[in-house]
Each structure stands twice: as structure tokens, then as C-alpha cells.
């Protein structure tokens, strides 16, 4: 069973007919939203889903922004922490996947990847935080890791990070996009942001087994695949 219709929900569509899992992929699409109603809607849907399907294993997608000191006090991260806590207290069997910045076939302008691409293409000015880094991961890689975990029954009733082994300085991401598009962006470098670590040791063996590599060229491959 799938709850949601966004990019992640569509990628996990093979679970739609499964009666042992409910993949909850109906979250707030804009992590910058300040509207309480957006977050309340997700929580109410989650409560209703758990009440209707208590026998199913819940799969929930949280965020690695929890580790970002510049985001920890924000509405989005605080909401995700509340949801995680509710799941731990309420679901008999669950998997919480904290994912980083997922890149995939999405027209959502609020994703960091689409935001930079759209602004560079439109020659629209935007800010680049000089000290910030972002962890980008292919949606297909997220699916491969999560699917492996679910099939093997690993990390049940635990929280697992699914992210790239490497985070990229935001300026480096912008420069890579500029080179790929062969177009200079119009941006202002701002002395803000920070870097943070995401522990992916729990999935290191899975990445190796599935031969998922994050080496040189990963960003370019994402652009080739998803820049549209």
C-alpha cells in the first residue's frame, strides 16, 4: 500500500499491492513552509493510516536536515521529529528512513536541485550560502537501498539514514550546474551556512553489495538524468 502521489510515492509503486507494508510518502513538499496547516494535514493522515492498518509495517520518510544546525529549529525539522516520535510510540512495526536531498523526476521547484537549475536557466538572481553543503542522492539509489532493507527485514523499528557518502559545498553544486548547462548563474555569495556530517555506516555494506557508487561524476550523472 502506498500513501501519497509524489516523486517518492511513484518510485515505490511496486509496494502498492503489498498488504504487509504501508509506504507513507505523503509529506510536506516545501520544507520552507511556515503554514501549520500543512504539517497538521500530514500528521492527521498518518494517524488515520496507522489506525486503519495497524497490522502493516509502516515505512516513513523523514529528513537528514535534522543534522543541519541551521535547520534544526525550523518548522519542517521540528515537525519531522514529532512525527518520528509519534511513530515510535504508536506503530508496532516500522521503518523510519531519514533521506537527504533526493534528486529525481520531479517538477517541484522547491527542491534544492530544481531551484538552482531553474534560477540559472532563467538568469534569476539567488543567494548562495558560502559555508553551506548539501547532500544529494539519486531517487533510484534511495529506492534500491530502502527496498533491500525492507526485503531483508533489516533495521526494523529503527531509524536509518539513506544519503550520499559525500556532501557537496553549495557553491560547487552551482558551479557544476553552470558548467553542465553552459550558462552562468546570477547569484550573490552570502556568508552563511554550515557543513554537517550524516552517518551512513549502517548502509555501507548495502551500498557495496548493490554497487552504488558516489564517486567523481555523481553530480554530473544526476544532471544528465534529471535536468530535463
Could you walk me through the main structural features you see in this protein, from its secondary elements to its overall organization?
The chain has 228 residues and is an alpha/beta fold. It has one domain (2-226): NAD(P)-binding Rossmann-like Domain (Rossmann fold), CATH 3.40.50.720. Helix content is 39%, strand content 18%. The chain is built from 8 helices and 11 strands. Helix 3 links the parallel strand 3 (57-63) and strand 4 (94-99). Helix 2 packs parallel to helix 3 and helix 4 packs across helix 6. The radius of gyration is 18 Å and the shape is globular. The mean pLDDT is 95. This is NAD dependent epimerase/dehydratase family protein. It comes from Niabella drilacis (strain DSM 25811 / CCM 8410 / CCUG 62505 / LMG 26954 / E90).
CATH topology: Rossmann fold
Distance between the termini: 30 Å
CATH architecture: 3-Layer(aba) Sandwich
**Helical element count?**
8
What proportion strand? 15-25%
Identify the overall geometry: globular
Instruction: Count the E strands.
Output: 11
Radius of gyration: 18 Å
Mean pLDDT metric: 95
Order of helices and strands: EHEHEHEEHEEEHEEHEHH
What is the share of helical residues? 25-40%
Describe the strand arrangement of the main beta sheet, using strand numbers. 1-2-3-4-9
What is the assigned CATH homologous superfamily? NAD(P)-binding Rossmann-like Domain
Organism: Niabella drilacis (strain DSM 25811 / CCM 8410 / CCUG 62505 / LMG 26954 / E90)
Protein name: NAD dependent epimerase/dehydratase family protein
Pfam family, one: Epimerase
Domain NAD-dependent epimerase/dehydratase: 37-162
Amino acid at each position: 500500500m502506498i500513501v501519497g502521489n509524489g516523486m517518492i510515492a511513484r518510485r515505490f509503486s511496486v509496494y502498492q499491492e503489498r498488504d504487509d507494508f504501508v509506504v507513507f510518502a505523503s509529506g510536506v513538499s516545501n520544507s520552507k513552509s511556515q503554514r501549520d496547516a500543512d504539517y497538521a494535514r500530514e500528521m492527521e493522515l498518518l494517524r488515520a493510516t496507522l489506525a486503519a492498518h495497524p497490522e502493516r509495517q509502516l515505512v516513513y520518510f523523514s529528513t537528514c536536515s535534522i543534522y543541519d544546525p541551521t535547520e534544526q529549529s525550523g518548522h519542517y525539522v521540528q515537525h519531522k521529529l514529532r512525527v518520528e516520535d509519534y511513530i515510535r510510540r504508536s506503530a508496532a512495526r516500522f521503518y523510519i528512513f531519514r533521506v537527504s536531498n533526493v534528486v529525481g523526476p520531479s517538477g517541484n521547484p522547491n527542491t534544492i536541485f530544481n531551484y538552482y537549475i531553474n534560477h540559472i536557466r532563467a538568469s534569476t538572481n539567488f543567494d548562495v550560502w558560502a559555508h553551506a553543503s548539501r547532500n544529494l542522492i539519486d531517487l533510484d539509489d534511495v529506492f534500491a537501498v530502502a527496498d533491500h532493507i525492507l526485503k531483508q527485514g533489516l533495521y526494523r523499528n529503527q531509524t536509518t539514514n539513506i544519503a550520499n557518502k559525500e556532501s557537496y559545498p553549495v557553491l560547487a553544486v552551482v558551479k557544476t550546474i553552470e558548467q553542465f548547462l553552459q550558462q552562468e548563474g546570477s547569484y550573490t555569495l552570502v556568508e552563511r551556512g554550515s557543513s554537517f556530517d550524516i552517518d551512513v555506516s549502517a548502509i555501507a555494506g548495502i551500498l557495496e553489495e548493490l554497487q552504488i557508487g558516489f564517486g567523481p561524476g555523481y553530480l554530473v550523472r544526476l544532471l544528465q538524468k534529471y535536468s530535463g
